Amino acid sequence: MKEKKILVWFRNDLRLHDNEMLVEAIAKSDSILPVYFFDPAYFEFDTEGNMLEGNSRVKFLIECVAALRESLKKIGGNLLVINGSPEEHMPALVEQYEIAEVYHHREVATKETTVSSNVEDLLWKLKVNLKHFIGHTLYNKEDLPFPIKDIPDIFAQFKKKTERDAIVKACFLSPEVISLVEVEDWGALPEYHTASAGPLGGEEQGIAHLNELFIEGSEIYARVNSRANTDKPVYSSKLSPWLALGCLSPRKVYWAVKDAERRFGTNANFNHLILGLLWRDYFRFMFKKHTLHYFTDIVTETDSVAGAAQDELNLQAWKDGTTGHGLVDKYMNELNVSGYISHAGRLVVATFLIYVLKLNWLEGAAYFEQKLIDYSPASNWGNWANVAMGGKDPRSKNTFDLDKQIKMLDLEIYDPS
Ligand SMILES: Cc1cc2nc3c(=O)[nH]c(=O)nc-3n(C[C@H](O)[C@H](O)[C@H](O)COP(=O)(O)OP(=O)(O)OC[C@H]3O[C@@H](n4cnc5c(N)ncnc54)[C@H](O)[C@@H]3O)c2cc1C
Fold first, then answer.
1. 359 and 374, same domain (yes or no)
2. Which of 93, 107, 126, 259 has a Cα-to-Cα distance from 208 of 20 to 30 A?
């Protein structure tokens, strides 16, 4: 009988743990072909295959892909690295390696779902199925207490009903052995040049960071009562880059928190961490529910009167961290150097762009997309939409007055940067 080969298309799921797609591909095939595409729709290359944009985001991504390849090698696997788009290369790969089926994780944002649909159409012509998996959220959409179309737009309602009526599933175990399709050349990772510091990408690094959070005496415990005047949690786990690229699954983080709760009791920072995971789910489900309308319905009253030329200069100054506003410039410089800023920092620079410079928020969101090492379409565009008062959650429509916000966020006291 003919050998069954499944192509496993990795995207923002660069891990072995809690990866249903990988587990099922191994179970249902004789051999698998794990593949990652460095898609030029996201990253530009020079003629020698070097990545042109030497920023922190590129560095982190390449580290994550390299780490996945190493993890796969440890269990008898490997990762085929293609510098090109899935649309361009998938049909040829399927034919060359006689692939019976392609597995991948479903995304929610338009750019990503369009790529999936294009690939699905191409595969359909070859009579090969593209199987979709869901593995990006804490709660599977099937387990929610409402169909996608009825998910509450108000975050507090979403949170209350979900926590009350849905369960977080256990993680899938990491596979221990892989049988590989035979490949002559597994492809080289793109080169990149950056002086960026920042965290190291990859599943192992993400898990190590997660474990360090729950060592007694670590920041997560120490910061509980660090703000004497308020009970607002002030903690930032800095897990977002690994979560965004799927080096960590949200369920892995959730169960690590639950385990810590069992050992040490509850803690405001633990709740804050889980609240963050719920916000993350909420934005993904909002995308699923409203698709592009999540943005296009936005009515902003922030049209600039400065004129196009001045707007351009203002936008550039915002990007370069040279606006003259100390806090905004500090955060933008930090973003440019490390690819990460705190949530408070994001709120401040977004508020400044929209309500002080009166620029189009889409410009700000696009710049974040380029720079953030934790860039995640739903989280980025959803949060920007909320700041632009166009999100679907009315409670997010705070007064985005910069000075009030800086006071409200109590930045001098607790901002970790
Ligand atoms: C304008 C703007 C743009 C943003 N863009 C992104 C983005 O591209 N990617 C991204 O992961 N987050 C984004 N956020 C949300 C949030 O700022 C970051 O998730 C958070 O700062 C990451 O730090 P942390 O890991 O210490 O978070 P923690 O506070 O420790 O939270 C734990 C995890 O929960 C998730 N989370 C927490 N808050 C949010 C939130 N408001 N929305 C979505 N997820 C959340 C993150 O995955 C985070 O790692 C954005 C926020 C704003 C205001």
1. yes
2. 107
Do 278 and 323 share a domain, yes or no? no
Residue 265 belongs to domain with CATH number: 1.25.40.80
Q: Are 108 and 287 within 8 A, CB to CB? A: yes
Is residue 185 a part of any domain in this protein? no
- Closest CA relative to residue 135, chosen from 36, 303, 9, 257: 9
Cα of 386 vs centre of ligand 1, distance in Å, is 13
pLDDT digit string, tens, across residues 133-176: 988 999 998 999 999 999 999 999 999 999 999 999 999 999 99
Contact residues of ligand 1, CB 6 A cut-off: 236-240, 243-244, 273, 276-277, 279-280, 283, 342-343, 346-347, 350, 368, 372, 374-376, 379-380, 383-384, 387
pLDDT of residue 413: 41
* Residue 166 within any structural domain of the chain: no
**Nearest C-alpha neighbor of 246 from the set 1, 4, 3, 19:** 19
- Count of domains for the chain: 3
Q: How far does the centroid of ligand 1 lie from the alpha carbon of residue 275, in Å?
A: 11
Q: What is the pLDDT of residues 225-238, one digit of tens each?
A: 444 444 454 678 99
* Structural domain harbouring 83: 5-135
